[in-house]
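Input structure tokens:
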């Protein structure tokens, strides 16, 4: 029904700050979790447009922060190679430990199990179990450059994907230190990978420094579409769960909206808030948050 629909962004709200590196919606509260290049993480209420909580994490950049809603926690990974966990009710620091030998690019929270993945510039991915006092239960080696992103498979609780500046996507099982398979994905390094489903098919999305995003048949292990048009590194890719669209963001300061029926370009928007570093959607709504050089933007997708 959406094949000929025009998508556009309305009701933009901007929260100015230092460079925002990651954004995530809370599943039930009107909150957005934002991590900053300055070393601070804050929770912003998009309804009241006020800051609920602020955590000064480190003197170095925080590139990734995630909610763990089942525990009432926030987990962050920073350039000092530490993972820190906070209770977002009391703001108490629950745990702090050195996780890697270099910058932490991404943390990923398992949707149902007590697992967190961390990905680092040391080219290593680690699996942490909070029910075992944050023990590292598996180390994954195989990438030859910085690991920029990890994403759990929504259909297989034991599988996840990783994206690296070594130009590859690797698929892993949490119980094995070696990858199940590798995709030679792009001509330059990858910044992003994520899963999405359409019409009972499971796909992977990737974004790269070759200025493209790609759509992969996760089962067939082949590229089915290349999304071209950005004029700089593609830093974030997001498939909306309620709308048949993929959103890509890049260092060219634009968001592009693609129709998942044929992956044609439907809309381009330039916010004017600097380079784009992350995109997040809110389940059950058409709301999207974007992390930029000058803070965050929150918009409604209208179709």
């Amino acid at each position: 029904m959406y094949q000929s629909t025009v998508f556009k962004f309305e009701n933009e709200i901007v929260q100015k700050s230092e460079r925002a590196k990651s954004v995530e919606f809370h599943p039930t509260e009107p909150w957005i979790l934002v991590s900053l290049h300055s070393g601070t993480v804050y929770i912003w209420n998009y309804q009241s447009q006020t800051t609920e909580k602020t955590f000064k994490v480190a003197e170095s950049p925080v590139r990734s922060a995630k909610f763990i809603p089942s525990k009432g926690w926030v987990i962050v990974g920073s350039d000092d190679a530490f993972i820190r966990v906070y209770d977002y009710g009391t703001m108490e620091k629950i745990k702090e430990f050195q996780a890697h030998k270099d910058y932490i690019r991404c943390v990923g929270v398992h949707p149902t199990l007590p697992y967190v993945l961390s990905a680092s510039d040391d080219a290593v991915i680690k699996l942490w179990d909070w029910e075992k006092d944050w023990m590292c239960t598996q180390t994954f080696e195989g990438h030859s450059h910085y690991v920029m992103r990890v994403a759990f498979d929504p259909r297989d609780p034991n599988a996840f994907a990783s994206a690296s500046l070594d130009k590859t996507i690797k698929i892993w099982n949490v119980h094995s230190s070696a990858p199940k398979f590798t995709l030679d994905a792009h001509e330059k390094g990858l910044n992003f990978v994520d899963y999405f489903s359409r019409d009972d098919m499971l796909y992977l999305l990737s974004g790269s420094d070759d200025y493209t995003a790609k759509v992969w048949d996760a089962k067939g292990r082949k590229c089915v579409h290349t999304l071209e048009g950005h004029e700089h590194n593609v830093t974030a890719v997001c498939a909306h769960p309620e709308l048949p669209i993929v959103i890509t963001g890049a260092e060219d300061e634009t968001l592009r909206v693609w129709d998942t029926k044929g992956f044609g370009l439907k809309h381009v928007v330039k916010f004017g808030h600097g380079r784009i570093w992350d995109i997040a959607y809110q389940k059950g709504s058409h709301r999207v948050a974007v992390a930029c050089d000058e803070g965050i933007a929150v918009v409604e997708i209208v179709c």
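Residues 211 and 230 are 6 Å apart (CA to CA). The mean pLDDT is 94.
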